[in-house]
């Protein structure tokens, strides 16, 4: 798997969780589910940033 694919997958994962959380909030779903999804989004954003920085570092070496 190329580094571009890994970065793309990380970004898509963040986007999917964001959309699921927003959809849950918009339809008046459970606040607990929204809270869990938003926490998961923050974790996935951290992972995506680490992946992106790793790819940048790897390509510059």
From TrEMBL:
PROSITE patterns: HIG1. This is HIG1 domain-containing protein. Keywords: Membrane, Transmembrane, Transmembrane helix. Pfam families: HIG_1_N. The keyword Membrane applies. Residues 1-61 form the HIG1 domain. The chain crosses the membrane at residues 6-26, 38-58.
């Amino acid at each position: 798997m190329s580094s571009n694919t890994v970065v793309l997958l990380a970004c898509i994962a963040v986007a999917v969780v964001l959309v699921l959380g927003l959809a849950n909030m918009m339809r008046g779903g459970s606040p607990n589910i929204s809270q869990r999804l938003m926490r998961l989004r923050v974790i996935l954003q951290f992972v995506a940033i680490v992946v992106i920085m790793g790819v940048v570092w790897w390509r510059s070496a």
